[in-house]
Known about the structure:
By secondary structure, this protein is of the alpha+beta class. The protein has eight helices and seven strands. The protein has helices spanning 33-46, 118-127, 147-157, 164-168, 175-186, 195-208, 219-223, 231-246; strands at 3-9, 18-24, 69-70, 73-74, 96-100, 109-111, 114-115. The strands form two sheets. A five-stranded mixed beta sheet has the order 2-1-5-3-4. Helix 3 (147-157) packs antiparallel against helix 5, helix 5 packs antiparallel against helix 6 and helix 6 (195-208) packs across helix 8 (231-246). It is elongated.
Amino acid sequence: MNLTLKVWRQKNAASPGRFETYQATDVIPDMSFLEMLDVVNERLIAEGRDPIAFDSDCREGICGTCSLVINGVPHGGQKGTTVCQLHLRHFQDGQTITIEPWRAKAFPLLKDLVVDRGAFERIIHAGGFVSVNTGNAPEANALPVPKEIAEIAMDAAACIGCGACVAACKNASAMLFVAAKVSHLNYLPQGKAEKDRRVRSMVTQMDQECFGACTVTGSCEAVCPKEISLAFIAKMNRDYAVASMKGVASLT
Length: 252
């Protein structure tokens, strides 16, 4: 199987970027997309050329590190799939594939296909935690959680923070990510004590990071590899409205 790759190359944020063309020859349909890039990079290194910089870590669809826009779609467009889970069998022999980084003001480019997603970390630091007393581990059944609520909280917790929602949104909004992180904790009894301050803090930090406004186009949900629902955005908006009416201050 042979593919033509048009890859965005950029030395750093201050340098101009451009697409460069590479050939991925004799690759196997059962390879993952990242394995194919590994093969291309091995050939570039053997030729004494600079390899393509891209992010990866677990390669099991868990960490959210892989972050490529493939043919205009974050993660390549296969439903519920990260780039590391995307296999070459979804492409045609001889096909030309365009590969770009996430493009958002809040995700400054570092090199080639690598962007700085530190904005997400700062949002989590603003309120993505619960305060508990130290000491012995609490009894597992001391805080019973209704099954329906537990399942909804787990659905929100499935967010891996990859940033595909931002990359897909025409406004580069981070609402789906923030809503998932807020809802995960706000649904659970352990998070209720800080519920109002959490949503104020995390939304405030999101705005400070210069993400765009949400216009509910649904593009974020469509590309999310964990299929996080837009319903969490509605939940976060309700929580934020309540906290604002109460005049609750943020955690930070």
